[in-house]
Amino acid sequence: MLTRASNIAAGVLATAAAAAMRLLDPDVDPTSVVISIIIIMMAGMASTSAVQDTITGHYMHGLGRIYEGLITTAGLVVGVRPGAGLFTTLGVPLPVTNDVSMASIPLWLMLIAAAFVAVGNGIILQSPACVVFPTATLAMLVYAVYAAQSTGEGADAWARGAAAFTAGIGTAILPRWVKAPSSAMSITSFLVLLPGALPYQGIWGSSLSGGQALYYLSSAFIAALSLAAGLMVGQYVGVVVLNALKVVRNRIFTPVFSSLASNHPLTRRGGATSNATDSTAVGDDGNRDGTR
User: Fold this and answer.
1) For labelling alongside 155, which of 55, 82, 220, 228 has CA 20 to 30 A away?
2) HSE (CB half, 13 Å, CA atoms) of 60?
């Protein structure tokens, strides 16, 4: 109950900030102001974690996260819509809608934003300092992969999956180099791709038309599925590649020799390397130790 109240309060405060910005500059888009304030509270991570739990067989956890995400998003919408109506009544028009788009933002600016988001989230999670720069670099690479694959109709899901796959490989390899847990880098590396705005658009659009709400909610589920599956497969592939490289390295630098003579110095590990006659020599009649 407390969480719902805080989400509603956050929505109202976001509209108050948008109203203040409109007083300073009437050309400011109030929707962008509101989304930028409540974006950290949206249920992108909850929806992705819900799909990941469902894939791995934790169905009850998945259902619980889905419910949590919907309730969280609904609380934000309940706070934003009355707040926008209130300030419009008071003489500050706030045409807040559910139209959230980043298509007009240049790629170079989105890459910088992805790096800053990764750094900020690392600070919030109190990640080790050695993780911050690698995570920011990986976040830029992940978004570059997404931007390269998201061209064309219906390519968003594949682009998110490819980006999450890249993040999975990166979070399987980089933590071993910087001596940090992979959990400190996995979600942070593709935080800007989490489908937090899609559930918000769906719940907002539920009061406009049922078809619009279904479209956004199904898009959120597909996006979360792509991210969760891509991350899991990428991490698996990264671990397999690391293990394969480790085996190759061992075979190169620590070769295993085979010989019919089991006491040969090259095949005796941890034993004596002397070529002296074994004390358990075979006697003339085949008995050991020379006993008859």
Assistant:
1) 55
2) 0
Instruction: For residues 5 and 207, give the distance between their C-alpha atoms in angstroms, rounded to a whole number.
Output: 21
Mean pLDDT of the chain: 76
How many Cβ atoms are within 10 Å of 179's Cβ, its own excluded? 9
Residue among 191, 186, 194, 190 nearest 235 (CA): 186
Sole residue written with tokens 């020799």: 257
Burial 86-122 (b: 16+ CB within 10 A, else e): ebbeeebebebebebeeeeeeeeebbebbbebbbebb
Q: What would the 3-class secondary structure string for 202-224 be?
A: HHHHCCCCHHHHHHHHHHHHHHH
- Supply the DSSP symbol for 257: -
Q: The tokens 């045409």 sit on which residue?
A: 95
Phi, psi values for residue 257, rounded to 5°:
-100, 150
Contacts of 80 (CB under 8 A, 6+ apart): 11, 12, 14, 15, 34, 38, 96, 204
Cβ(125)–Cβ(188) below 8 Å: yes
pTM of the shown model:
0.71
- Check: CB of residue 164 under 8 Å from CB of residue 227: yes
Confidence at residue 143, expressed as pLDDT on a 0 to 100 scale: 94
Coil, strand or helix: which one is 237? helix
pLDDT at 291: 46
Per-residue pLDDT reduced to its tens digit, 7-59: 888 888 989 999 999 999 888 888 888 888 887 777 667 777 777 777 777 77
Reported residue count of the chain is: 292
pLDDT digits (tens, 9 = 90+) for 243-262: 776 654 444 433 333 444 44
